[in-house]
Amino acid sequence: MPDQKVDNLLNLSMDATPKEREKSENLNVGYDPKTRRWDVIVKYSGPESGLAGVGIEVVSLLGGYAIVTLPESEIDAYSNREQIEFIEKPKRLYFETLEERAASCILPVQAGNDGLTGEEILVGVVDSGVDYFHPDFRNEDGSSRILKLWDQSIPGNPPEGYIRGTEYTKDKIDEALALGETEGRRLVPSRDFSGHGTAVLGIAAGNGRASDGVNRGLAYKSDFLVVKMGNARQNSFPRTTELIEGIDYLVRQAVKMGRPIAVNISFGNNYGSHRGDSLLETYISNVANVGRSVTCVGTGNNGNDRIHTAGKLRQGQTEMIEMSIGPYETTLNLQLWKAYADEIEISIETPSGEKLPGLSEKIGTQRYRAGETDLLVYYGKPGPFQVTQEIYFEFIPTGTYLTSGIWKMYLRGRRIKEGNYNLWLPGGNILNPVTGFYRPTAEETLTIPSTAARVITVGAYDSRLNAFADFSGRGGKQLVYFKPDLVAPGVDITAPVPGGGYSGMTGTSFAVPFVTGAAALMMEWGIVRKNDPFLWGEKVKAYLRRGAQPLPGFEQYPNASTGWGEDVIIRLH
């Protein structure tokens, strides 16, 4: 019987064979096959002292959450501990990448002797790292604007309370800068190999020193806290466990320093109900109550992809959903989310026309063989934070590639009370371009955690054309919270890159830092300059919504594409 205190995907992963897990893109995320240990997100109650044990490492987070590393053989016993409320498997994260400050009406509020600069406000990023040698992140005297840099991928000296990576202080970074590139990189070897984090931080708060101020960011006199996600394993990629630890670190540091912080998240994934009910999303919303913070998250770039479809099923009705799998696809997973109150019958037809036996509505793992593809199906029950039900499908090749062609799924409403259903394929541009739904739906293509309740959710528009960017993820009527909040420039944005120069960037990854920087300026105006000492959190969101302007082509506001409107128009009077 599957463990109801463990999420569906972790239950399936532990039930799958080693070969199935090895071939899957998703099932082994969070697992180290060398040590046979898992990193998991845990929600608990009671004292922290009861979380640890022999062979179990614990990082206690704010609000009754923790990251726990433990042997796979111990998960069942660990979940039986009375204080453990729920255990969630990590998910893989993806970059949200594919004329800017003027379009956002930032230049006027930066102008003059009383212009806003972000001074005394912290800007925090959890990302791919930063090129700390870039002039835009250094003061006029050459010293660093970075107060703390936690590189999770370099073992050695983790921050107090954490177990991975190395923390570098401003003093250590300044020492490295004084030594020059060659010797300095040996002292502080943290690098941003992708350039993503460097670009994001520069848009939010770079001072433009490498361009004589031309490419200056928004909160250009703010101080920085930087977390580089990752681990020391080969072929590693960022995961939700690393993101949640990074956010926890930023908020704790800001509270310790007694300063407001604007946090930027330009990563996301497509796994979940998209209703703000995963442990990652509930943690982010809960931690918003700690200190004086604002968290801004991008909607992702799935808006014009073929990876989401949805519909409304009526009792006795059958709907057919067609999905193509392209040639040379090595793995694929599919999520179906519906109201638990609805009872539906599910059957699958392969590209050859073979109809698989009707899926049995029993909790746990079911296996089917279809041509060159093994199909693992997992029927889940709602978790303690959900009213929805997930049916998860993992497509695994028997050889090298999945059976290509058109797959058909038939849904029949047996006993319907609500009828809404959603299906998602993986995002992050990891699929063959041919793979996708034949009738995709753009609504509800937000990536997680932009679906969390107490974040500012940011989409993208093209400031050159003053037009919505069609790749930007959309909200929808079925979401618990109306999303997005607004859109910001996200097409061909000039941003710093490692090595000291600049380049053009596109994606909601680069729309978010406009809002993060604007939030820092607003907190400076309110908190530092004492115009409004309570200007943080949801109040910043309210101000931004009020200041947003209509975008051509949309008559109703808020709407699922642009939210309350375009731009980061700061109206502080």
What is this structure, in a nutshell?
This protein has 12 helices and 28 strands. With 573 residues, the protein is an alpha+beta fold. Helix 6 runs antiparallel to helix 7.
Q: Provide the structure class.
A: alpha+beta
Mean pLDDT: 92
How many beta-strand elements?
Answer: 28
Sheet bearing the most strands, described? 9 strands, mixed
Strand composition percent: 25-35%
Approximate shape:
globular
Determine Rg (CA atoms, Å).
24 Å
> Between the first and last Cα atoms, what is the distance in angstroms?
59 Å
Uncertain stretches: 99-107, 232-236, 569-573
- Helical content band: 10-25%
Our count of helices gives 12
Oligomer: single chain
Secondary-structure blueprint:
Layout: H1 8-15, H2 18-23, E1 31-32, E2 37-44, E3 57-60, E4 65-71, H3 75-79, E5 84-88, E6 94-95, H4 100-103, H5 107-110, E7 122-127, E8 146-151, E9 166-169, H6 170-179, H7 181-187, H8 196-205, E10 223-228, H9 240-257, E11 261-265, E12 267-268, H10 279-287, E13 293-298, E14 308-312, E15 318-325, E16 332-339, E17 343-349, E18 364-370, E19 373-379, E20 388-397, E21 405-415, E22 420-424, E23 436-437, E24 456-462, E25 467-468, E26 486-489, E27 493-496, E28 502-505, H11 512-528, H12 538-547
Parallel strand pairs: 7-10, 7-11, 8-10, 11-13, 13-24, 24-26
Antiparallel strand pairs: 1-2, 2-4, 2-5, 3-4, 6-12, 8-9, 14-22, 15-21, 15-23, 16-20, 16-22, 17-21, 18-19, 19-20, 24-25, 27-28
Helix pairs in contact: 6-7, 8-11, 9-10
